[in-house]
Design brief:
- The structure is a single chain.
- By secondary structure, the chain is an all-alpha fold.
- It is 55% helix and 0% strand.
- The chain has seven helices and no strands.
Length: 165
């Protein structure tokens, strides 16, 4: 998340006022007790607690891994806009508890034909879809690197093939 939000820049600031490594809004930071959004440790701690809170607030019908993907989308676009997209998804006959269905309707929040019909209005709905995809991809890359490093450190004795007794 930190990489996607700020490219690891602890002093990052967006035109909308979100700041720090985890790009917290001032309101979110205050709610989480983060006093200095530009302090990397505070920002990471606050962002992690914020994500955990979003995961917890997901409706019980959303199971893993969709629960995490939806929470990541909410981290980016806000829980209210995510809920608008879930309602649009359901009204179109799709499953509002499945990320693969909701991600197809989030972009509608930027479409004049659809956002006036939502409770919370306009949102840049493609951004959370891209955000979730990028976080997932970056995570997969980190896991792959970790697996490769572990394989390189594996003792050679574990590679020996002993005959069956």
């Amino acid at each position: 998340i930190g990489y996607q939000e700020s490219f690891w820049d602890p002093e990052a600031t967006s035109p909308t006022g979100v700041r720090g490594l985890m790009m917290l809004t001032e309101e979110t930071a205050n709610h989480l007790g983060v006093t200095n959004r530009l302090d990397p440790a505070e920002s990471i701690d606050g962002g992690a607690r914020y994500l955990q809170g979003l995961i917890t607030r997901m409706p019980p019908g959303i199971t893993e891994p969709d629960r995490l993907w939806m929470a990541l989308a909410a981290y980016n676009v806000g829980l209210s806009h995510l809920e608008d997209a879930r309602i649009l998804t359901q009204k179109q006959g799709h499953d509002p508890n499945k990320w693969n269905d909701v991600k197809n309707h989030l972009p509608w929040l930027a479409d004049e034909a659809w956002y006036p019909k939502t409770k919370y209005g306009y949102a840049r709905g493609m951004e959370p879809v891209q955000f979730v995809n990028r976080v997932r991809t970056y995570y997969d890359v980190l896991v792959k690197i970790d697996e490769e490093e572990k394989a390189e450190k594996k003792p050679q004795a574990l590679d020996l093939k002993a005959p069956a007794i």
